[in-house]
Structures are given as structure tokens and as C-alpha cells.
Amino acid sequence: MAITSKPLPAARVLEPPLARATTARGNPSQPPGWVGWAFLAPNLLGVLAFTLVPLLSVVGLSLTSWNLVSGLSGIEFVGLQNFVDLFVDPGFWNATLRTVLYAGISVPLTVVGGLGLALALNRDVPGRAVLRVIFFLPYIVTVVAIGMVWLMLLNPSAGVVNQLLGAFGLQDLPGWFASSHWALPALIIIAIWSGVGYASMIYLSALTDAPTQLYEAAQVDGAGAWTRFRTITWPSLVPTTVFLLVTLFIGASQGFGLIALITAGGPGDATTVVSYYMYQNGFQFYRFGYAAAIGMATFAGVLALTVLTWRAQRGRTLHD
Amino acid sequence: MTSVTLDTLDRTRLRARRRRRSRWAVGIPLWILALGFLTPFLWMLSTSFKRDIDAYTVPMQWIPDPVQLSNYATVLLGEDSILPAFANSVLVALLRVAGELLTATMAGYAFARLSFRGRDKIFLVYLATAIIPSQLLLVPRFIYFQQLGLYDTLWALILPGMFTVLGTFLMRQFFVAQPPEFAEAARMDGASEWRIFTRIYLPLARPVMAALGILAFVWSWNDYETPLVLISSPEAYTLPLSLTSFTDEQGALSPGLAMAASVVTIVPVLVVFLLLQRRFVQALTHTGIK
Question: Which residues form the ABC transmembrane type-1 domain (chain B) (predicted)?
Fold first, then answer.
């Protein structure tokens, strides 16, 4: 694509038909450059207005102190003060710790669960098509419906989950969203439940690309199921795993819908993860500069983690 | 000779039997697990037909007694009907999907099949933007839409969704894989660039457009965080926001109404998904890996 002929501006229009035909045969003709710009323009302008400029303003905002009440004229440049404040803000570090805990537990379990599910669904099991839909269902349902139904299921005294646990003879049933110990685990359970189907769907499409001829060869060689998985299946799933880890980590560190809906960060601040902390500062306290700084700091953290994961994976595939 | 054939015959028969057994050995636990996964939705459906006083009973009630449809009647036709929010959700989703399909196919085609100065640099910027989570943009978008007077209007939800980086990326990947010879031949015949795009390449892109459209529809339909931040008056509520408003006299959530409204919200997206499942999954897998 890069080495096509230079576009022939204006002159091209004036060319006699025969000359144009020869040019086209020699090297593929290309319309003038403005045509490309015209095709790109609607999207580019919109992306500029609604994504790129807001993105740059997050950077700018994070260097200011501003609340909604004072109006646009009340914007005050404070340099890196927000980041300095952030660094010594125990609320931010507690929220970060909770995010690490929340994402650090829910994401790996989602990926492992998704892998297991995909391997099972990849076999010839009865009703496979229906099973796929069932596991995937949470992904296509709005977080509000999910939050409301789980709030009912996890009701400490009369919810389905605790009634079932009680039926198994368990004492001291968890208080879930009413307890500062169990609220975060409850969110982790919901995250896994709603993410596993998505992860398995992504794995399944990767599994169909796996080198199947190798399996038969390995079977003939007498390789066991585990050896076959480790040496044939897994290497082809590494890129998918990295992709899932990265996207799920970004999602887990940025989403706050479920928390805003169910716990509002509580009880106490037991579920105030960093994304909710940003939401709180921005849209409840209207501390936009500080909220922007929180957003940037967490995204920078996730980005660093992404790059590290990528490097680690690359190192491994090179070794193999 | 004979012993060898017998041996292989035996072995294939044995393998078939083993496969049949493993079919169920994996199948049964999987179905039990699936039932567990389905429980929240079964509970939702069951509660939507219950009286509020039957929602939290010990022991729990799976089959509503009495079965009543009044929750659905209230949710759809009552004072706080969700139908206006339903209409808002449809409007937002349709405009977003239409806008995204139009701008993303054009831009994707430009990146893939037209050459112009700066193209590759702009594409790099697009790529870099693709991993920015939308939550990071909520604060500046909030301020913008407030300054533009679009805060608390449906446009605040529609406009950003019409111009997406991800959609453009998806379409670009498709057009790159299409043969450029079609365009070259058409150009020799004197076809205009717009005609080449709409008559040759766009029809080829129909399956990918369907996939992108479904994905965009589902995301738009389910989005809660954006309207939570950018919408405040009930007239501009979309479904996810309006779901949160079903409370009883004491201000606590009314289980029956909330679950009935949830079911109404889920059904359209479920229908779309079941009809076009394959395309949906294709789009999902192509947005990231390939």
C-alpha cells in the first residue's frame, strides 16, 4: 500500500482517456489525496471533538483546581499539586489497594474459568449451542439488571444464596453487601459470574484456530491429555490470554457502574475502588481537577501493567 | 493382515465408546454449572411475577404463588412507565449505530484503500486512542456538554457514539483484506470514488457491518455509566437509568417492579443476540485479537 504511485492531482482530470489507461496499467491509479481526507473527515472530526480533545483536556484539567460552582472563570492552574495531593491521600491509596485486590482476584479467576469453560465447550457435549448462550448471557445484560438481581440473591437474611448455604448446614452466613468484610467478595463473585462467559467465547474462537493435526500426531505418540494441552494447545492460547488479562484489567480498574448502583462505595468505604473514588470526586464533590488526576494516575498504572504483561509474554514466546 | 484390521476395528470401537461416555462425563457437570449461572435470570423472571411480599420468603419461592401480571402492567402502563425511557433507548441506539456505521465504514475505507498524506500517522493516533477507557473521558465530556448546552439531553449520549475509533479500526481491518483490483478496474471505467465505495466495497462489507452494528447496539442499550453522569432529568432517562427508579412507598427497591422492568429491558437485546449470535461473537473476537 505504501509504495503506490503518487496521487496525480488536478492534471489527472485533464488527461485523455488513453493516457489514463496506460498509467493505470503501469501502476495502480490512486485518486487525489483530498478524496481520502473527505472519506475520513466525518469520523475524524467527531473523534477529535468527542475523544481526542476531551483526552487532552483531562491532562490539562489534572493540572488545575476547579469546581463546577465557580464556573469556567474559576479554573486555577496549580501545576502538579493534584498529583502531590494524590500521593499523600490515604483515601486514594486505600482505593488503589482495594482495586488491586478486586482486579487481582477477579481477573485471573475469570480468565482461568473462561479457559476451563472453553475447553469443555470445545468438546462434543450435549446441547452445546444452548450452553454457550447461557454462559454468555450476563455479558449482554445491563449492569443495572445484574446489580438489582444480585442484591436480592445476596440478601443476608432471606436471599437465595444464604438460604442455600444454610441448607448445607453452614453457620455464620456472610452479610454480603451489608458487611464491610463481604461486600468486596460479593462484587468479585458478580464480576467472575458475568465475565467468565465472555472469556470463554474469546478462548473458543482461538481454540478453533489451534493446530488440530498435531493432536492426532501427539496421540499416536502416546502423549497424555495434560502433555497435549501444555505443549500444543496452551502455546496457541498465550496471545488470547494476554489480550483477556489486559482488557479485563482495564475494565476492572475503570468500571464503577455496579458500585455506584449497589454499594455507593460502602459500607463505610469497603468498596470504594479507585474508579468509584474518581466518580465520587468528580460528580459528587465536583472536584474536576482532582478527579482528572485520579483518572490519569490509574490509567497510567494500568498502562504500565499492560506493557509489562506484553513484555513478559514476548519474552516467553521467543524462548520457545 | 486380519489381526491388524481386527485390532484397528476394536480400537475405533473402543474410542467411540469412550468418546460417548466422556460426552456425558463432561456434559452433566457442565449443565449443572450452567443451571447455577442461569439462576439469577430465573430468579429475575420468577420475581417479576410475584407480589413484593413474596420476594423474600423463607424458604424461597421459585414458582410465584399467586402468579400475577400486575408488575408488568405497572412497569409498562403505570404512572412511572418505562416506555418513554424505552423509546429514548431505541432512539439513542439507532442513531448511534447508524452514525457509527456510516462514519466508520468511510474512515475505515480511507485508511485501507485510499492513500493521502498523513494517513499512517493519523492511523497511529487512532490505534493509540483505542485503548483509552471511556470512563477517563467522562469528566471532560461532562464539562463540554455543559458548556455546549447538551448536558442532560440525549445528544450527550448519541454524539460520542457516532464517531468511534474502534469501529473504524474494525472496518479498516476488513477493507485492507479486500482486493484493490476492483477499484482499479472501476476507475479505468471512469467510476467516481464514491460510486466505487458504495457499489463495490460496501456490499462486500455487509457481514462486518452487521457485526459492528450489533456490538454497538448492545453497548449503547446497556450503558449505565454515561447516562448516570450526563443525564439528570427523568424525561431523558434511558432504560438502565429508569430501572433504578422502581422503589416502593418506603423508598426501598420494589423487587417485583424492578425485576419486571429488568426483563423488559433484557428481551430486545436477547432477541437481537439470539438472531445474530454468530456475527456478534465474530465482532467481539475481531475487535481485539486480529
Answer: 86-276
Residue contact A143–B184, C-beta within 8 A: no
In chain A, the DSSP E strands lie at 64-65, 76-77
At residue B132, φ and ψ (nearest 5 deg) are -70, 120
Measured in angstroms, the CA of A181 and the nearest CA of chain B are apart by 23
Q: Which of A12-26, A278-292, B55-69, B90-104 has the lowest mean pLDDT?
A: A12-26
**Contact yes or no for B135 and A254 at CB 8 A:** yes
Of the partner residues A55, A202, A261, the one whose CB lies closest to the CB of residue B285: A202
Pick among B43, B54, B88, B115 to test the A interface (most A CBs inside 10 A): B115
Average pLDDT (A195-210) is 87
Q: Which residue has the higher pLDDT, A177 or A9?
A: A177
Q: Where are the domains of chain B?
A: 2-48, 74-288
Amino acid present at A143 = V
B41 touches chain A (CB under 8 A): yes
A54-59: long-range contacts at Cβ-Cβ below 8 A with a sequence spacing of 24 or more? A54/B137, A54/B140, A54/B141, A54/B144, A55/B129, A55/B132, A55/B136, A55/B137, A55/B140, A57/B140, A57/B143, A57/B144, A58/A292, A58/A295, A58/A296, A58/B136, A58/B137, A58/B139, A58/B140, A59/A292, A59/A296
Q: Determine contact, residues A135/A193, Cβ cutoff 8 Å.
A: no
Q: Quick one: pLDDT at residue A25?
A: 38
Residues in contact with A186: Cβ distance below 8 Å, sequence separation at least 6, in sequence order? A150, A154, A174, A176, A177
Rounded CA separation A46/B281 (Å) = 27
Domain B74-288 top-level CATH class: mainly alpha
pLDDT of residue A295: 92
Interface test with A, best of B17, B224, B266, B269 (most A CBs within 10 A): B224
Q: What is the pTM of this model?
A: 0.85
Instruction: Count interface pairs A-B at CB distance under 8 A.
Output: 280
CA distance B38 to B32: 10
Within 8 A of A44 by CB-CB distance, chain B residues are 107, 122
Q: What is the Cα A119 distance to its own chain's centre? A: 23
* Of the options 1.10.10.920, 3.55.40.20, 1.10.3720.10, 3.40.50.1820, the CATH number for the domain spanning A83-319: 1.10.3720.10
Residue whose grid cell is 478453533: A208
Ranges of chain B with pLDDT below 50? 1, 289-290
Give the single-character DSSP code of A229: I
Residue of A23, A51, A215, A294 best to disrupt the B interface, most CBs of B under 10 A = A51
Question: Which DSSP category does A51 fall into?
Answer: I
With CA atoms as reference, the chain B residue closest to A132 would be: B34
Cell 427523568, located at residue: B234
Q: Tell me if A148 and B19 make a contact (CB, 8 A cut-off).
A: no
Å from A188 to nearest chain B CA? 15
